[in-house]
Amino acid sequence: MRRLFWVGVGVAVTVVVYRRGRKVVQQYLPASVAERAGQAAQDAGERASGFVADFRETFGEARARREAELTAALLAEGQPDPETTRAQRAAGGHRATGARRAFPAGGPAAGVDDIDDDEAELGYSF
């Protein structure tokens, strides 16, 4: 309990010193120095904003390049580009969901002809 009391006293003293210090600085500081400090802070903000915009642009380009590299590295030989496959599915060339249908009444063997078109090309299915 004593520690909490002294922490509270320390916080209160810090706030009082900070506020009084700001008043003293404003009282004795020439207006031109304050204007220069304000302008310097504004310039720093503009530079930071420009840096962030440049960083986002550079990061986006690097991310797109790396994504293309990883996609190329992960595709099997002869496997079509995923964007091409998505475009074909959207155009109606394949089923849009890609999900398998439930087994027909005769069981799994009766649905042998119910295989996705691209399974023969891919060599695997889920």
Automatic annotation (TrEMBL):
It comes from the Bacteria. Residues 113-126 have a biased composition (Acidic residues). Residues 77-126 are annotated as: Disordered. Residues 85-112 have a biased composition (Low complexity). This is Secreted protein.
